[in-house]
Design brief:
The structure holds two protein chains of two kinds. Chain A is mainly alpha-helical. Chain A is about 50% helix and about 0% strand. Chain A has five helices and one strand. Chain A is elongated and about 55 Å long. Chain B is built from six helices and 27 strands. In chain B, strands 1-2-3-4-5 form a five-stranded antiparallel sheet, with no helix packed on it. Chain B has a five-stranded mixed sheet with strand order 8-7-16-11-12. In chain B, strands 9, 10, 13, 14 and 15 form a five-stranded antiparallel sheet that branches. In chain B, β13 and β14 form a beta hairpin. The radius of gyration of chain B is 22 Å and the shape is globular. The relative contact order of chain B is 0.13. The chains are: A mainly alpha, B mainly beta. Chains A and B meet through β1, α3 and α4 of A and β2, β3, β6 and α4 of B. β1 of chain A pairs antiparallel with β6 of chain B, so a sheet runs across the interface.
Chain lengths: ~110, ~400
Amino acid sequence: MQKTIRLALVVAALASGAALSVAAPKTITLPPDGATLRPSPLPGYAKAQADCVSCHSAEYMIMQPPNAGRPYWEAMTKRMKAVFKAPFDDADVPAIVDYLAATYGSKTP
Amino acid sequence: MALSPHASKRRRLLAAGLGAAAGLGGVGRAAWAQSGTFEQPFANGERRLAAYPEKRPMIVTTSRPPQLETPFDVFNDGIITPNDAFFVRYHNAGIPTSIDADTYVIKIGGNAAGKPLELRLADLKTRFKPVEIVAVNQCSGNSRGFFNPRVTGGQSGNGTMGNARWLGVPLKDVLARAELKNSAKQVTFDGLDTAIFGGGDFVKALNVDQAMNPDVLIAWQMNGADIPMLNGYPVKLVVPGYYGTYWVKHLSQINVIDSEFDGFWMKPAYRVPDNDCVCVAPGTAPAATRPIGRFTVRSFITSLKEGQRIRTGNSTVVRGIAFDGGKGIRDVGVSIDGGQTWKSAFLGEDLGRYSFREFTFAFTPERAGVYEVRSCAWNRDGVGQPTTAVWQPSGYMRNVIESVKVTAV
């Protein structure tokens, strides 16, 4: 009789599955970035490192196609402030755009 | 799936240009995983290969937040994409790295939910009837790097797609508990991932009729295992036939609302030209847009590589995969002469209308020379693939007939 009850409990436990399981939280460790911005004497280089790469990795810029022109870099830089509330000054925008357009932009404007 | 795990692993190493390392033995996973490179076949296509948690080495489109593309060889290993090779695409860098499934809660509310509720993961698993569905998830921007003229955004090759067996409960059963009001217009979905500075949180919306489709699931299993963290552990919205943008990861908040949700990721992001071809003249902007919806019809030859040499007179079984937005694949035509003549391929096992469908055909090059091999799939509505690529400014929904040139020697 006791055996039957024990078996019933086991069956109930199996049936309810994860409800009764006590698992540790699942944790992952993300690897470091695999790319850095291309150095440049332009003042926007340091600003881009501080204002862009602090939030997302550099491939977002590096991978863009060769026809990504200045209007693209300007629109993206402004979007980061307007949509994503990136905390950099409006005054920094031209320098960042200059650096990105010169470094990753189309050579034909 | 004829390859043994060992053979499959060896092949990946070779693909990474690390065949020599594979023979050395004792080479740590991390040592080689971090050092491979891959060249996408378009300008500025150099990429790293790296192994992220629970993932084999994959093509790194971006490191942070991770956007990882499946090496295309994987699609020739079988029509189910393994969890450790399934693509990853986040939008904001505030991604969860530790989640306790035992305390995990999904909240269902919103101004058009008559009876808001909270469900623990255990409630989801025990208080509803689970269903299983095999379905392709594909990035809206899969193959964006092939657009001509090129468009900006995530520069993906063809590997931001995958096919998995999802286990979960129909969203409509969960919504029924929330007692939708007559005013309900849309359902929004938010996950644990956050925008670092609070703007542009990744939230998506479906119209109520889309959300009530019985095939839309809140899933907790992928190919018989927990969903990998980077694919949305512990629960993910599965929207079969629809682009991956709606498949919200780490699903934590569902709101039923009486208005049209206009967050950034619904408007202006992830929109397509609102016309029949879903296209515009290259370089122009659409007059009107709508949210992206179902997949277009696609097919890929997976067993031949561009430039591959094959033997004249020998018969080769060529294989590939086809899928569409949920009607199911009715026929796949194949051509070995650049599309001048076509014949039907043999269709493999049918895992349902949202799944990859394998196709095969016997190819015997009679003479030496270059063969341009193509495939074109048709779905059960008779919709096929275009001969020339259509264009749209965001680089979504590419589905031109693919072609691979091989040389018979």
